[in-house]
Amino acid sequence: MSRHLLSDQAVIVVATKNAGKVKEFAHALEKLGKGVQSLHDYPAIPDIPETGVTFAENARIKAKATGDALGVPALADDSGLRVEALGGEPGVYSARYAGEGATDADNNAKLLAELKALGSALPEAAAAAPQDGSKLLSRAQFVCALALYDPRTGEFVEAEGTVDGIITDRPHGDGGFGYDPLFWLPGLGRGMAELSKEEKGAISHRGEALKALLAKLNG
Ligand SMILES: O=c1nc[nH]c2c1ncn2[C@H]1C[C@H](O)[C@@H](COP(=O)(O)OP(=O)(O)OP(=O)(O)O)O1
Ligand SMILES: [Mg+2]
């Protein structure tokens, strides 16, 4: 039954207003022959308050509100950054870290200011560091929770993905979105914002979550 949830849809509604997420889902789902719509295509749907205390809860809230409003299945992504030196913050508050309506630049600046105030630093040996003298500030993890909701049955299918990295004291690359410029991948020796959409999708929290979701749907 859940198999049909996506196989019947030529266009998948992604319950997001984040243009960076839309691009990544469009790229990934294009390979399955599917188009993507987002909340930008449905401006009549009111803002959805993200009142959950977990990524999974917020993903379910966004998927349900959107699916119920449209009467078709909706896929939602709630994601964010957990920074070890900050005890896991900003976590579910990642989008509003520097306040309501904060831009990615505001949030990145706040993250660097907080880590600087703590004097947080990792030993150089902790990872393959960038070759430009960047300091490694803290271990971190991106988390992505996906929820696919079918308003016709009330059914949810959910999956999560993560990717580990290190926050650097300066940006690397100008791809991606959000905290990508400050997120260094020691295993690759590159920054997340230096990866192509294809490369990011192969290793990212969102890519991992999507693989797990598709495996569930096909399993
Ligand atoms: O791949 C990523 N690369 C960098 N940063 C990322 C990524 N994935 C999530 N993030 C950051 C952006 C935002 O600060 C927060 C998501 O917050 P989150 O509420 O899930 O998304 P959002 O408010 O931007 O759009 P929406 O809720 O309409 O889907 O984590
Ligand atoms: Mg949000």
Automatic annotation (TrEMBL):
Binding residue positions for substrate: T16, K17, N18, A19, G20, K21, S79, F177, G178, Y179, D180, K200, H205, R206
Cofactor(s) of this protein: Mg(2+)
First-level EC class: hydrolase
Active site location: D78 (proton acceptor)
InterPro entries: dITP/XTP_pyrophosphatase, ITPase-like_fam, RdgB/HAM1
GO MF annotation terms: dITP diphosphatase activity; ITP diphosphatase activity; metal ion binding; nucleotide binding; ribonucleoside triphosphate phosphatase activity; XTP diphosphatase activity
Enzyme Commission number(s) from the entry: 3.6.1.66
Sequence positions that bind Mg(2+): D78
Lineage: superkingdom: Bacteria
Record's catalysed reaction(s): ITP + H2O = IMP + diphosphate + H(+); dITP + H2O = dIMP + diphosphate + H(+); XTP + H2O = XMP + diphosphate + H(+)
Cofactor binding annotation: Binds 1 Mg(2+) ion per subunit.
Database matches in Pfam families: Ham1p_like
Sorted UniProt keywords: Hydrolase, Magnesium, Metal-binding, Nucleotide metabolism, Nucleotide-binding
Gene Ontology annotations of biological process type: nucleotide metabolic process; purine nucleoside triphosphate catabolic process
Cellular component aspect of the GO annotation: cytosol
The protein's role, per its UniProt record: Pyrophosphatase that catalyzes the hydrolysis of nucleoside triphosphates to their monophosphate derivatives, with a high preference for the non-canonical purine nucleotides XTP (xanthosine triphosphate), dITP (deoxyinosine triphosphate) and ITP. Seems to function as a house-cleaning enzyme that removes non-canonical purine nucleotides from the nucleotide pool, thus preventing their incorporation into DNA/RNA and avoiding chromosomal lesions.
SUBUNIT field: Homodimer.
PANTHER family linked to this entry: INOSINE TRIPHOSPHATE PYROPHOSPHATASE, INOSINE TRIPHOSPHATE PYROPHOSPHATASE/HAM1 PROTEIN
Family: Belongs to the HAM1 NTPase family.
Protein name, as recorded: dITP/XTP pyrophosphatase
Organism expressing this protein natively: Paenibacillus soyae
